[in-house]
Amino acid sequence: MELVRVVSHNTHKRMVSCLQGHIGADAEKRHKKLPLTALSQAMVEGGNQLGEESLIGKMMEVCGEAENRLASELMQHELQIEKDVLDPLSQLAEVDIPNILKQRKQLAKLVLDYDSARARFSIISGTNTQALTAKADLLKEEVDEAMNKVELCKDQLAADMYSFFSKEGDYARYFVTLLEAQADYHRKSLTVLESVLPTIRDQQDSWTEKPAFGTGLDEHLKRSGREIALPIEACVMMLLETGMKEEGLFRIAAGASKLKKLKAALDCSTSQLEEFYSDPHAVAGALKSYLRELPEPLMTYQLYDEWIQASRQDPDKRLQALWLVCDQLPKNNKTNLRYLVKFLAKLAQESDVNKMTPSNIAIVLGPNLLWAKTEGSLAEMAAATSVHVVAIVEPIIQHADWFFPEGIFCLFVCFFYVSFFVFLFFCFTVSLLYVRSTPNKHSDHSLRRGSNTLGRKQHTSPAFQPPLPPVEAPGQGHGAGQVSQASVEPQPQAPPGGSGPDGAQHSVAQGLAAPAAAQHTEELR
């Protein structure tokens, strides 16, 4: 019994120390004194001070309200624990068991009194004198009375102990009640949190000011509502203004502090970028860092094997193989790669000044566009694939207008060509009927028009079949990055407004040469 009392007392003491409210206080006072209540008040006040324009302020206000609801649940939980567990456990340890122990002590005392009376009676009962006989009768009564008290006390003690052991299941139930109350409290707290989490997550997801560096391309574009990633477009705009003739662009490292500042500015989508126009190497470094920190390379893990396989093709088949792989890129990746490659092609046109030929650009920038999905450092991955990556990126830059023809959609182009051919064929037929009554010079002129028209119809859009690869002029090196128009197979003529590879090259060159950065960017798109 003493052991049960000690164990129950220690458990009660530790359980009280786990409560955050004041024991015995009423509900309102207990709620005010809870640490969660103080935290809730601090969060709500902080959110009000920061205002609705701050995401931190919004989050603190929502979290403060949630913490207040959790504090209410905790207060109700502790009141229940105090009523259903602590009070009965205290009654057991401090009242019920001590009463039983007192009964045992009382019984021990009564037994001693009985033994003393019986001993005195035994001494006197051995004499036969009349005086001692009278005293023996008194002692006999005292012994009988002590015996009765002992029996009564024994009966009471036995009844209390039997009662305790019969209620042991009820006492053990206190600990079941404790766990049930805790489970109920946590379920209610979880309900509170689950009701708040969707709201706070929606606010977090709707907040567009998120870092671009290290964020997936699709996520960044979806969140910002853009077609071109902000770091790519911003860096290209700045480089078009001040970096096209900078020697060693993308090769010479920028200052670490300036690069860190520019990346942080791009992460928070600030428009205050004027100070970076004077440091094109920092801008180029930021562009390389963005490409390198993408969770997946711009040219994708999925097509890595296809890219490498295409780079191993014979020179006469390599461009065609690369075009087929490029056409498989996801929409967002292809759009951003096209934008970047168009810029790099324009940069390579200034290679006489900036020394950045397509080969040099591919060497320094290629490992940031494509790498293997393997364990290891970036340097190890770059070293493992650098040769193949250069063989992939260099021809794409050299023949940017062939890989990414600009203008109207290819389907519309084909429809336009077919319709235009039917019209010209009709005109050609009419002219043949007319030529019989006209001089031969008209017939020659019509035939020339007809032959030109037939030449146009020989080619279809790259959207339907791979276009023929460009052919370099005799005597022109592979790294020069220029394609001879005289040696290229006849390409579809662009509809009015400029389309097709030649038209796209002309429009991009004009746009990139314009003074405004916005015009440069629109042409690169």
Automatic annotation (TrEMBL):
<feature type="domain" description="BAR">
    <location>
        <begin position="1"/>
        <end position="209"/>
    </location>
</feature>
<feature type="region of interest" description="Disordered">
    <location>
        <begin position="440"/>
        <end position="525"/>
    </location>
</feature>
<dbReference type="InterPro" id="IPR027267">
    <property type="entry name" value="AH/BAR_dom_sf"/>
</dbReference>
<keyword id="KW-0729">SH3-binding</keyword>
<dbReference type="GO" id="GO:0017124">
    <property type="term" value="F:SH3 domain binding"/>
</dbReference>
<dbReference type="InterPro" id="IPR004148">
    <property type="entry name" value="BAR_dom"/>
</dbReference>
<keyword id="KW-0796">Tight junction</keyword>
<protein>
    <recommendedName>
        <fullName>Rho GTPase-activating protein 17</fullName>
    </recommendedName>
</protein>
<feature type="transmembrane region" description="Helical">
    <location>
        <begin position="402"/>
        <end position="435"/>
    </location>
</feature>
<feature type="compositionally biased region" description="Polar residues">
    <location>
        <begin position="449"/>
        <end position="463"/>
    </location>
</feature>
<dbReference type="InterPro" id="IPR000198">
    <property type="entry name" value="RhoGAP_dom"/>
</dbReference>
<comment type="function">
    <text>Rho GTPase-activating protein involved in the maintenance of tight junction by regulating the activity of CDC42, thereby playing a central role in apical polarity of epithelial cells. Specifically acts as a GTPase activator for the CDC42 GTPase by converting it to an inactive GDP-bound state. The complex formed with AMOT acts by regulating the uptake of polarity proteins at tight junctions, possibly by deciding whether tight junction transmembrane proteins are recycled back to the plasma membrane or sent elsewhere.</text>
</comment>
<dbReference type="GO" id="GO:0035020">
    <property type="term" value="P:regulation of Rac protein signal transduction"/>
</dbReference>
<dbReference type="GO" id="GO:0007165">
    <property type="term" value="P:signal transduction"/>
</dbReference>
<keyword id="KW-0963">Cytoplasm</keyword>
<feature type="coiled-coil region">
    <location>
        <begin position="129"/>
        <end position="156"/>
    </location>
</feature>
<feature type="domain" description="Rho-GAP">
    <location>
        <begin position="215"/>
        <end position="404"/>
    </location>
</feature>
<dbReference type="GO" id="GO:0005923">
    <property type="term" value="C:bicellular tight junction"/>
</dbReference>
<dbReference type="InterPro" id="IPR047165">
    <property type="entry name" value="RHG17/44/SH3BP1-like"/>
</dbReference>
<dbReference type="Pfam" id="PF03114">
    <property type="entry name" value="BAR"/>
</dbReference>
<dbReference type="Pfam" id="PF00620">
    <property type="entry name" value="RhoGAP"/>
</dbReference>
<comment type="subunit">
    <text>Component of a complex whose core is composed of ARHGAP17, AMOT, PALS1, PATJ and PARD3/PAR3. Interacts with NHERF1, FNBP1, TRIP10, CAPZA (CAPZA1, CAPZA2 or CAPZA3), CAPZB, CD2AP and SH3KBP1/CIN85.</text>
</comment>
<keyword id="KW-0175">Coiled coil</keyword>
<dbReference type="GO" id="GO:0005829">
    <property type="term" value="C:cytosol"/>
</dbReference>
<dbReference type="GO" id="GO:0016020">
    <property type="term" value="C:membrane"/>
</dbReference>
<keyword id="KW-0812">Transmembrane</keyword>
<keyword id="KW-0472">Membrane</keyword>
<dbReference type="InterPro" id="IPR008936">
    <property type="entry name" value="Rho_GTPase_activation_prot"/>
</dbReference>
<keyword id="KW-1133">Transmembrane helix</keyword>
<dbReference type="GO" id="GO:0005096">
    <property type="term" value="F:GTPase activator activity"/>
</dbReference>
<dbReference type="GO" id="GO:0032956">
    <property type="term" value="P:regulation of actin cytoskeleton organization"/>
</dbReference>
<keyword id="KW-0965">Cell junction</keyword>
<keyword id="KW-0343">GTPase activation</keyword>
<keyword id="KW-0597">Phosphoprotein</keyword>
